[in-house]
Amino acid sequence: MNRICTICARGGSKGVKNKNIRELLGIPLIAHSIIQAKNSNLFDVIAVSSDSEEILKIAKFYGVDYVIKRPNELATDTAAKIPVMQHCVSEVEKLSGLKFDIITDLDATSPLRDISDIKNCIELLELHHEATNIITAAPARRSPYFNMVEKLENGYVELSKSLTTKSIIRRQDAPKTYDMNASIYAWRRNEFFNCESVFTNKTLLYEMPEERSQDIDSELDFEIVKLLAEKRGTLG
């Protein structure tokens, strides 16, 4: 069974300038995901997709197997993640002559994951033969069933009824919900090339703790990740 790990990173970033190459613990942010993928010993191939020559140069330096130049139409702010991954895997298959049974993506902006999280995700997917894919998430700090309110036209608010047919008054009555952390995605081959969304009726969830689930979208996020990373002392 052949496995590929993709790491997809654009050159531009509005929330945090050049975040994918910004240093964290003395090395570029994207390098942490590359090192984790290599140290996991799970993948036949590790590939980085980017529109940025600088990112691709860093990826080569840290020893990925393939660097894939992303076309302009897949490098915009509105470009979806799945087509970017599909392009990367297709290009690697052409170059390598391999066909990959399991496709795993590590998000460069979520470096706090453990290698055990990567291993557990792949093991969970391979164990459940009917599952199409895996997403990762942390328990929601605030349940949308209990905490989400809607502003009415008259300016007043009410508890949102968009998620349920009736208002949930007590926390204990709210269904358990999760925040997607954009850390790890994994697919089976056939489903991967046919899907347009990370959600199917056979998508599994792998739960990660909050302290390993911080995603970098802002300067505040970067400072939080930096603080947690320095406390751990190492990532990867």
From TrEMBL:
Q: Which Pfam families match?
A: CTP_transf_3 (PF02348)
> Do the record's keywords include Lyase?
no
Query: CDD domains, alphabetically?
Result: CMP-NeuAc_Synthase
Q: Does the keyword Transmembrane helix apply?
A: no
Q: Which Gene3D superfamilies match?
A: Spore Coat Polysaccharide Biosynthesis Protein SpsA, Chain A (3.90.550.10)
Organism's domain of life? Bacteria
Q: What GO MF annotations does this protein's record show?
A: N-acylneuraminate cytidylyltransferase activity
Sorted alphabetically, the keyword list is: Cell projection, Cilium, Flagellum
Record protein name field: Flagellar modification protein B
| Native species | Ureibacillus sinduriensis BLB-1 = JCM 15800
Lineage here is: Bacteria, Bacillati, Bacillota, Bacilli, Bacillales
